[in-house]
Structures are given as structure tokens and as C-alpha cells.
Amino acid sequence: MTDFDTVTSRKNTASLKWDKYRDQDILPFWVADMDFKLAEPIQKAVEERVSHGVFGYTVAPDGLSDAIIAHLQNEYQWQVDPSWIVWLPGVVTGLAISCRAFCNDGDEIMVNPPIYHHFYDSHEVDRHEVVRVPLCRKEDRWTYDFAAMEAAFTDKTKLMMMCSPHNPTGTVFTSDELQSLAALCKKNNVIMISDEIHCDLVIDKSAKHYPTAAACPDMADNIVTLMSGSKTWNIAGLNCSFAIIKNAALRDQFRAASQSIVPIVPPLAYVATQAAYQEAGPWRAELLEYLAANYAYLQTELGAVPGLKVESIQATYLAWIDATELGLDDTQGFFEEHGVGLSSGEQFGQPNYIRLNFACPRETLVKGVERMKAAVSTLA
Ligand SMILES: Cc1ncc(COP(=O)(O)O)c(C=O)c1O
Description:
Elements: H1 16-19, E1 27-28, H2 40-52, H3 64-76, E2 85-88, H4 91-102, E3 108-111, H5 118-121, E4 129-132, E5 136-138, E6 141-143, H6 146-152, E7 157-163, H7 175-187, E8 191-195, H8 212-215, E9 223-228, E10 241-245, H9 248-258, H10 267-279, H11 281-303, E11 309-310, E12 318-322, H12 331-337, E13 340-341, E14 343-344, E15 353-357, H13 362-377
Parallel strand pairs: 1-13, 3-4, 3-7, 7-8, 8-9
Antiparallel strand pairs: 2-10, 5-6, 9-10, 11-12, 12-15, 14-15
Helix pairs in contact: 2-10, 3-10, 4-9, 11-13
Bound molecules: pyridoxal-5'-phosphate (PLP).
Pyridoxal-5'-phosphate (PLP) binds at residues 32, 90-92, 116, 163, 167, 195, 197, 228, 230, 236, 241.
């Protein structure tokens, strides 16, 4: 059994998450990385590579594509050819390169708030327009508003950037939803950029992730899928991601747009990613159990706090909390003053919400929740 309970201090490690509050008594639950140590096989593989001592320019090691392809086949019944894979140092890089590759001056990119903030800012500001068509809430989950999207497409719309499973709402889209989306994009001649970085983090056992390109074979030639082991295996600081692009012409455009801008993937990142996909499946299974239990705890404890509504999520380790009823102008700032560092919903396009990253030992989470309860009690 993996020990997710032991607290590993990340102070003085130049951690983005923890250093934000360096000399303050504020527990960080914001940026999306986890406070857990690496799975043993990944740690071992990285240590072995470090002991070699030479770190020149590197290409993807033999067996890495095969490990990813096997994972996609086993988990999602998606058959991917190795030639479709383009290595990237980050998924956000993939979003930005897609805008450069597939949009001309004045073209429009559709995004659906609330959404991970880089969806708003990965385009070229002087050249492209971002068109925002909000998601809607149906039967206790967030989904696409197909009618509003249909009305918003113009002949300038070239890209639709989607996040599946969804950050920050935690929705796992059904195959029907993805097919409706693909049909809409096909009809309007729009390329879909499907960011699936959270696909291996489905915590609701009744939900299943469908890669957009696998669920929508008719549209597969116009889909760029972006993936990484970075969230699932907590190796975001190492920088290995990949695009999967079936259509050779799109792939060439994507590669051409990357030229001279995108650095190659670092050697330790490749090694860690290979060990993750090849050997750290059992670790992931245990992680999902732990995350689901943390989320259940949050729902019970924070769900009972007047003014906070912990919405149902199906995937990710990011709780999406409606704090409208607290009636505060700056909810994130309020909790920060009470020792809890959250992400502001405003960043994702939904003021009055807060996002809480619960990928930490239970002990840390309990401390944060107790501080949040105490904070809200001061409002009474
Ligand atoms: C939807 C989504 N895409 C991309 C990223 C970041 O990807 P990367 O660090 O590989 O650029 C995140 C991180 O939180 C995310 O939630």
C-alpha cells in the first residue's frame, strides 16, 4: 500500500505552490500539483538516469510511445499509431502552438467558461479573437450549451478549445456529449483542440473518460488531443507532454508552428513519463482511491458550512465551490486572510467561486478545512 498520509514538507524546495506563502502561515490549496512523493518506479528510474551523469539533448526513448499507446488502448480502447505522437514540454505549449498553427489574422477561437485560464491567453493577442460561450449547468453538472455555441460560430471561427475531463468543473463528458460537440464543429469547419491532461484522474466510479478523437471517429481528422502523465503522476515540474494528431497535414502544420520556439523535452522528463505509464498503474489506482476519499471528506465537512456549496465533480483533484451565498467581494482574499490559499474562481471566468486542490495528505486537508470553517464562522 502506498502511504499518501505522510506529510512531506515542500518548504524550501522552491515549490511554486508553497513558496507563494513562504513566510506566512497560509496553507496552499491552489495550483494543480500534488503534495505526494513520486511512485517508487518513477523515483528509481529518475535516480538511475541521474546517476549516468550526462544530460545532453534527448529524443523519446525506445518503448515510450508503445507504453502510452498500450495505456490508451487498455484504458480507453483508443488505437493510436506511433506516428501520430508529437512530443511537447507542456500541454499549455500545445494550446498556444495550436493557435499559431491553425489560425490566421482575425480568426476566432471558441472557449467555454469557466475554464482553465490558459485557454483565454494562449492565443496571439494581436492576431486572434477569443469568443466565450459559457458552459451551462444541467442535472447537477456543467456541460456545453450547444444552442449558444451554434449561434456563436462564424465563418472566422477556426478552433474550439476544450478541456476533457474539465478543469475547473470536474465534468467527465459522455460519449453523446462529445459526439454532439464534434458534429457542431464539423458542420462549422472548426478544428477541436482537446486538452485531456486530467483523463487518468476520474474519481467517480460511475463515469468513464472517452478521448474525443476515439468517441468521434468522423471528426478524428480535425482533432488535436493534448495529454501528459504530469498531473496523474505528479511530474509537472519535469515537462513531458504530447499531442496526438492523426491527420498528417495538421501534424505538419503543428510541427512547423513549433519550430524554433518549442524546446525539446528534457531527459529526466522522458524517463519519468515512461516509468509512469509502464510501471506506475497500481500507484495510480491507489491514488484515485485516496483522492476520492479526500473529496468525500470535503463534501461532508465543507458541504455543511453555510454559504459554501461543494459541487459534484467526476474527475480531477480540484473541488469547485460556489461561495456566492457568502456575499463577499473577494472570497479568495478572505480565505487567504484566514490562512487558506485557494484559487479564485475569477481566474477561470466565474467570480464567487473558489477552487480547492485536495491532492494532499488528509492531515493537511483537515487543517485547511478547519481554518475555512473558522473563517466562515467570523461572518455570522
Ligand atoms: C486543463 C489543463 N491544461 C494544462 C495544464 C498545464 O499543463 P502543462 O503544465 O503541461 O503546460 C493544466 C494544469 O493545471 C490544466 O489543468
